Amino acid sequence: QEGEDRMTLLHAKNLTAHFLTEEGVVKAINKLDLEIREGETLGLIGETGCGKTVLGLSIMRLLPRNVKIEGGILYGGNDLLKLSEETMRGIRGKEIALIPQNPSTSLNPVLKVGGQISEVIELHQGLKRGKAWQKAIELLKSYGLNPSAKGITQYPHQLSRGMKQRVLIAMGIACNPSLIIADEPTKGLDAIVRTQVVESLRELSSEKRAMLLITHDLEVAFALCDRIAVMYAGGIIELAPTASIFNSPGHPYTRGLLNSLPSRELKPIPGFSPSLIDLPQGCKFHPRCGHCIEICRQNYPEMIETEKDHYVRCFLYDKS
Fold this sequence. Notes:
Helices cover 33% and strands 24% of the residues. By secondary structure, the chain is α/β, with parallel strands linked by helices.
């Protein structure tokens, strides 16, 4: 894999996103640094509640008003966090597209699926309705959906979950964006439909566009991604080419995630993810880590390059 030779497309730099709630400040993302390269599929994995979806929504500028966001998200020479809402609306869908997590709630229940796809094409590409409709038919065909007159005029509730997911994928690529953010695209799907959706995503990644694949499904990440970033308690703790992550994971948490797979030891990680309102001092994983030493309880480790393009945030590798 030649990911390290690719140019950076998007760079989340020192990114922090904290939700102000009645219970306290939810520290969803904490000084996160992550680059997405041109044409690569970057997997973002980690347990539920670690901040993966918040990162995707931060890039799209779709977070609610009760979020305090700091740092920068650099894309095309601009900081997305500093653009006007009008400029950002022109980027969403056209240059950066989101395939959201729940197809049942993401599609408009009172509009036919063909109309929802053609509306995106009309808005961002300025095509007349007839041409936009024709392009919507071609997109549905390319994702294995039968776009007969009846098929394209169906409402979302008339489609299976897997079909709805593929409609969202078709909608996501309708304007040929340079970056797609796919948020848990296989969540809740049975094995057959999951395989179909993975094949649809594989076609996307083969078209040399960049994708941020947010998933807790490690097997899907292994099948589709060039590199994988492992997220824990709002930060990236390991980043490496996919084969390197699976063959020689560096962080104790990453090793624990892989050992919990049915194909491995099926051994769960002890303890629970920390509350994002009350994060532990030092390394956020130290209360669950079998390698914990005193420095882990006090200091937050830096990212260390353990081998080419493989970075781990752990004092096990600190030679200083």
